[in-house]
Specification:
By secondary structure, the chain is an all-alpha fold. Helices cover 81% and strands 0% of the residues. The radius of gyration is 18 Å and the shape is elongated.
């Protein structure tokens, strides 16, 4: 099956048609998507600000990460699920939208940034957990993450203004 055929199959699926043709499903799914994306960005921003060097009240960096990570992953799973449902309602349109494509690319970059942080600076967190300023690698990862997530939010909002 070609990419175009796959997108057409998604668009024509019962799920895609149901969301597209319902007067209430799309707005409900979109609302949940936005709420979960807000939770993801909010929890990540708290950690990123700590990595950049803003102190956390009564918690070291490791404890802050451990406390927030379950909320971040649960919200991300729901945001990805609802985003996928929204995608099925207009798969061909989203796949051709420059802002949607850009958002997906920046999401991948945010994932790579997180993986690099966990493979490098996080491996030595015992040495700098409560220290301020944090090591340069942690500050770079935090600042990069914060910028990438701001761009993701911007692009996500821009998608709504550019879809036909």
């Amino acid at each position: 099956m070609t990419w175009s055929g796959f997108l057409q199959a998604l668009y024509g699926s019962a799920v895609g048609s149901g969301i597209r043709e319902s007067g209430v499903l799309f707005p409900w799914i979109e609302s949940i998507h936005v709420l979960m994306a807000t939770t993801v960005v909010g929890t990540i921003a708290i950690v990123d600000l700590r990595l950049i060097g803003y102190p956390s009240h009564r918690r070291g960096a490791r404890q802050l990460i451990l406390d927030l990570l379950p909320f971040t992953w649960a919200a991300f799973a729901l945001a990805a699920t609802t985003g996928s449902l929204l995608f099925t309602s207009n798969a061909l349109g989203y796949a051709a939208n420059a802002q949607f494509i850009s958002k997906m690319v920046v999401l991948v970059l945010a994932g790579i940034n997180m993986a690099v942080f966990h493979a490098t600076a996080y491996q030595r967190i015992g040495q700098w957990d409560d220290a301020l300023p944090t090591p340069l690698g942690a500050r770079i990862a935090g600042a990069t993450s914060l910028i990438l997530w701001i761009v993701i939010v911007f692009l996500g909002r821009w998608i709504g203004f550019t879809m036909q």
